[in-house]
């Protein structure tokens, strides 16, 4: 499964960078097409280097953990995007449009109920384990990820109760967030550094060259 994910990344990431370059978020060279093979050659080379070099200096566990958290974060964005699009469709028009549509199930009461059950189970386990463990850094290290997930889940449940979001993408969002919190704090730090690099590139270049932003301004 991990080999499949890495292969998809190697093939798909250059196309993503090509699309971002055409939107102005990356320099134009990322969207340059090879005259013979008709592929984004520069993006493919950069992707290969960015995958090969870290793989030389990192062990297999670190590589798989980073791959997992990156893939799960992408799924979080997809589920969030589905929710945003559904909310936009409600505000723009009541006329249904064609294409693939996700069945709508109201999450107003289901998600808050599931979150409350999860909190009850978590507290029961914490108090049970607290009898056998001293409140050391190791104990806090084991409890902190789940605590962060439950805080995020409570925020999602509150939004579901207020906005009556669709159940299926919300469940997908919560499942991915739960799996992310189980990957460990060290992996979070590595991924946070990766996100900071991406944000720096966006505000240093992409924000000023974005074609979509220019259309919005005009």
From TrEMBL:
InterPro entries in UniProt: CAT_C
Transmembrane segments: 41-60, 66-85, 106-127, 139-158, 165-181, 187-205
Record Pfam families: AA_permease_C
Limits of the Cationic amino acid transporter C-terminal domain: 167-210
Keyword entries, A-Z: Membrane, Transmembrane, Transmembrane helix, Transport
Gene3D superfamilies named in the record: Amino acid/polyamine transporter I (1.20.1740.10)
GO molecular function: amino acid transmembrane transporter activity
Source organism superkingdom: Bacteria
Protein known as: Amino acid transporter
Species per Swiss-Prot/TrEMBL record: SAR324 cluster bacterium
Organism lineage string: Bacteria, Deltaproteobacteria, SAR324 cluster
């Amino acid at each position: 499964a991990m080999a499949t994910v890495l292969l998809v990344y190697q093939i798909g990431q250059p196309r993503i960078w090509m699309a971002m370059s055409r939107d102005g978020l990356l320099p134009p060279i990322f969207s340059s097409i090879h005259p013979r093979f008709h592929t984004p050659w520069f993006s493919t080379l950069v992707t290969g280097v960015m995958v090969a070099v870290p793989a030389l200096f990192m062990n297999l566990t670190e590589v798989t953990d980073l791959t997992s958290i990156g893939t799960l974060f992408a799924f979080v964005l997809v589920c969030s995007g589905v929710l945003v699009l559904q909310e936009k469709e409600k505000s723009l028009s009541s006329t249904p449009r064609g294409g693939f549509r996700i069945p709508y199930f109201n999450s107003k009461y289901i998600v808050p109920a599931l979150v409350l059950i999860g909190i009850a189970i978590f507290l029961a386990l914490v108090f049970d384990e607290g009898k056998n463990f001293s409140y050391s850094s190791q104990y806090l290290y084991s409890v902190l990820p789940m605590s962060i997930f439950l805080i995020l889940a409570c925020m999602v449940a509150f939004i579901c109760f207020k906005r009556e979001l669709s159940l299926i993408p919300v469940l997908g969002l919560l499942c991915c967030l739960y799996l992310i919190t189980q990957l460990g704090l060290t992996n979070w730090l590595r991924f946070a550094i990766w996100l900071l690099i991406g944000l720096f590139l966006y505000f240093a270049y992409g924000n000023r060259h974005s074609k979509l932003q220019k259309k919005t301004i005009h």
